[in-house]
Prior knowledge:
Elements: E1 6-14, H1 18-23, E2 30-41, E3 45-56, E4 62-64, E5 66-73, E6 76-83, E7 87-89, E8 93-104
Antiparallel strand pairs: 1-5, 2-3, 3-8, 4-7, 5-6, 6-8
Amino acid sequence: MRAGRTGLLIALLVLPGASASLAGxxxxxxxxxxxxxxxxxxxxxxxxxxxxxxxxxxxxxxPITGLSFDIDVNGLRFVAGLSEEAVxxxxxxxxxxxxxxxxxxxxRLPRPT
Length: 113
């Protein structure tokens, strides 16, 4: 997967006291796919181990207690995943989150034209 063609859409970022915590942020945190490995290949579904890099451009620590995400490639859903891993991203810093994601064979990507 090329990083330039992969779009990561975050559906839900669960923070303690989310509205209060997010209210103090001046800039939106960034999230990128740092790695993706195939864990299980089934006929109808595939499972992936995903490593996400969370970038915090703010002057406040960013505590994350869980994450729900979708990864779209070329505008099509590739995988959806969850992480219950807790991490505190330092101010003006980065943190890594491990997550599991699954994709369905029926939703595979189209062939390039």
